[in-house]
Amino acid sequence: MRSELRWTIVVVVLAIAGVVALWPREGRYDLYEPPDSGGPAPQVLEESGARTAPVPDDAALAGLRRQAALGPCPAPSPAAPPATGPLAGITVPCLGAPGTVDLAATLAGRPALLNVWASWCPPCREEMPALAGYAAGPGAVPVIGIDVQDRPADALTLLADLGVRYPSVTDPQGALQRALQTPPILPVSYVLHPDGSVEMVTPPRVFRTPDEVRQAVDRHLAP
Question: Is 92 a member of any domain?
Answer without folding.
Answer: yes
